[in-house]
Amino acid sequence: TMGDAGKSLPPTELIYMTYGGNFCFECESKVLDVKFVDKETVQIVLDRTVLHAQGGGQPTDTGTIAPSNIKVSKVLLDRETGVAVHSALHHLPPSYQYVWGIRYKLQWTLN
User: Fold this and answer.
1) I need a surface site. Which of 3, 6, 46, 104 has the fewest CB within 10 A?
2) 68 alpha-carbon distance from chain centroid
3) Helix or strand (DSSP H, E) at 16
4) Residue ranges of the chain with pLDDT lower than 50?
């Protein structure tokens, strides 16, 4: 899983897996980890998500993380650890610092 060496991340709360979560289009989430893959791509681990992960023939949901307006293009779930990684294109410099522990709004986008 992402994270620094020795840093383990808790499983992501998969809101969409609950009965009520099937009808949720947004949630408040905490940023747990961020990895800038290249100039345009960032991978973000949140404590909870309404976005369905890609897998088993199910296409990924897409959405937006506000207030940074980061467009999530793919969600992958590590079935071993239960951690969901949100991949996104971004317009932020690598020096951008997410504020750990505050909540960002994650909004599902209809495709």
Assistant:
1) 6
2) 13
3) none
4) 1, 5-6
Question: Which residue(s) pair with 35 in the sheet?
Answer: 43
> What tens digit of pLDDT does each residue of 17-35 get?
888 887 888 888 888 888 8
pLDDT at 6: 40
| Structure tokens that stand for 41 in this block | 């791509």
Distance of CA 109 to the CA centre of its chain: 13
Q: Which of 96, 76, 102 is nearest to 87 (CA)?
A: 76
Handedness of CA 25, 8, 93, 37 (dihedral sign): negative
Residue 15: phi and psi, rounded to 5, are: -60, -35
Q: How far apart are CA 100 and CA 111, in angstroms?
A: 30
Q: Backbone phi, then psi, for 22, in 5-degree steps? A: -65, -20
- Asked if 34 and 41 count as a contact pair (C-beta separation under 8 A), the reply is no
- Show the tokens assigned to 10: 């808790």
The SS3 call for residue 28 is strand
